[in-house]
Each structure stands twice: as C-alpha cells, then as structure tokens.
Write a structure and sequence with these properties.
Blueprint lengths: L2 H15 L6 E5 L4 E5 L6 H21 L7 E6 L2 E7 L4 E3 L1
Length: 94
Amino acid sequence: MSRIDQIHQNLQKLVALTPDLEGALLVTLDGLPIASALAGGTDEDRVAAMGAAALATGTRAVSELKRGELEQVLVKGSDGYIVHIAAGPEAVLI
C-alpha cells in the first residue's frame, strides 16, 4: 500500500470514528489535494485551494500582528465549522 493510500485510509477512519466530523482533506501548501475523505459531490480541488489560501492568509496575519506561530484557522458557518491546521511543514489538514 502506498503512502498516499495509507493517508487516505487514515482520513476515512478519522471521519468514520468521529461523529461530528463530516469530512477531512489533506492538501499541500500550494493547494493541491494529497488525500481526502469528503462527502460525494464536494470539489476537493476547490476546497484544497481555498484551504491553502486560508492558511497562508492566517500565517501572514499572525506574523504581521506578532502573535507567534499560527496554530489553526477556524471558519464558522451557520451550519458548522471548518478547521484548517498545519500538518507538518508542507501540508494542511482541513
């Protein structure tokens, strides 16, 4: 099993074992999807690009305002949350 397959399998397990979690996506800092466990019909390329942009914006804001290192970007909608978390130096978990 390839490393990407293992990551995909782990994302699926994470979503299956966490009742309030509806999906998970691992993307590069450039906004390219690595692996996903998203609901059908979700455009993972678009979500990946927006997620990387959100993390980059948050990183710049934290730096400019001298608030240390970025830990996460939280987006709250009327029907739930989207959390963007750095997953190592080269990836974002959404």
